[in-house]
Sequence to fold (558 residues):
Amino acid sequence: MRMRAAGVLGTAALLCAALLGTGTAQADQGQIETNYQNPVTALPPVSQPDTHHCTVTAMQNDFGNTISSPAWSGTVTPPADCPGPWSKVVLNWSGSVQGRQYDRLAGVWIGGAEVLRTSTPEPTQQGISWSLEKDVSEFIPLLRQSQPIAVSLGNVVNSTYTGVYHMKLTLTYYQADHRYPPAHTADQVLPLSASTTDAGWTYLNPGQSSSKTVTLPRNLTNVRMELYARGGGCDEQWFDSTPTDLANKYPNYLCGGGPYREVQVSVDGRPAGIAQPYPVVYSGGIVPTLWRPIPAVDQFVTQAYDLDLTPFAGLLVDGKPHTFTVTPYGAADGWTVDSTLFLDTDHHAAQTSGALTEDTLSLSPAVTTTETPGAGDLVNVRVSAQRDWTTAGWLDTSAGRIRTTVSQHAHYLNTDAVSNGGQKQVVAQREDGATVVTTDPQHGHATSVKHSWDYPITVDSDVPVFTDDNNYSLTATVHQGRILADSVSQGDHWRTLDSTRDIVDATGVLARTNGVTSAADGQDSEHWTGTTDAGACYDHLIRAAHGYVTLDRVSDCG
Fold:
């Protein structure tokens, strides 16, 4: 079980998990919603090739009181009727739950590689069901053979928390044909997880790192890392943490340590890359009525972070063990991390050779924090940071020498107006940046690809009353977005290959007086625009009030 924050946002989730379904709609102190519809999102569906396909049920299990139990484990085998090659493999995760329950973190590992990270919705007494899909074709190198599968969903069931998660996991394999060619994948998938038969993630306390030592192929040409990282406890909503001196003044409402976080990766102790973490909000986070029925961004389908480690390949082809280390920098509470390597090899040479030629990345970011007093007990906190770094290296391959340069610029700004003894916070955070990977072959022209991101979030939260579990009032308004773009260089400009813009807005209220729910209401919306996995333009807007969808519109954006 994830420990909850001592501060008010964590307290809100702790209190509200014990309530029956409270719905979502315009925050109204007089409104009491006791039910809400099944969760819905505006994310585009995963495209399904029109080819022969087979669906395998990889797991069907009820997660009751599993908090101290090992992960569910089994074996997944490619279907005999769809032997491959496959144009796509799609994972489906579906479930139902009713009663009282927390949101829970869940993960799926195949062959030791984490193929899905997600979290669950909080149920109603009447019950809800939901499902999600994910394209897992990049793991085809593992899926070609029978593999161990592990599923972790740590849950608590007792006299108070009664919700059992009834979960099903399937994999659908789509045969390739002349219209849908085999999926392009890395040559090898190498998990850096802690286990192949149990939950593979590692839970880290503040100051800790996760390391895995492996031996890689001697003919590498490309190395990519896929990384997962989520905070827990006070770091579940790390973006509203305040400087420790301020948190110590109001320990019932605020978490300390400040809000700056980054996830650092090292290779044999050398800084190799960083990822700005997305400000995830669980379904019980801030005020649970914010997320009914539309979940926050990243709540159900957590996106991993990609880091290109190819500049280090020349150091990794010596046939010796090498250590990959992941560190949640700035963590003030626990983080759950995991990673997987995707490796390409030289198909015409048994060995490549090379060197790392540049590494300007420091693992000690310059973070600036200021606290400015305002009227009354108002304190305005401003935290900023900027990252600019480059790694570069070369490899001698059967195609000649190839130089790879990775450069990143990242910007961070968080402002937080704290008042009313820590009971009111107005937080605005912006994380944005771009990573450019340039490949310069000995024979041919250099190419550059750019991945840019923008993670805006604003939270206006207020706790006008907080006496105990039976007497409190919580209100909040949240704006949250994830804006991504992938581009390729063309002469003196960039051509966008695909882009997505996912925006969620929510307002919610929840209150109890003498143990009786006196307000439970909210309103939320999600607008997703961008490019689907098939390259089509997609525009989907959903609005909801009082726990039920009022508008669901898919538009022609082409």
Remarks:
- The longest strand covers residues 447-468.
- The chain has two domains: 35-185, 201-555.
- Residues 192 and 340 are 5 Å apart (CA to CA).
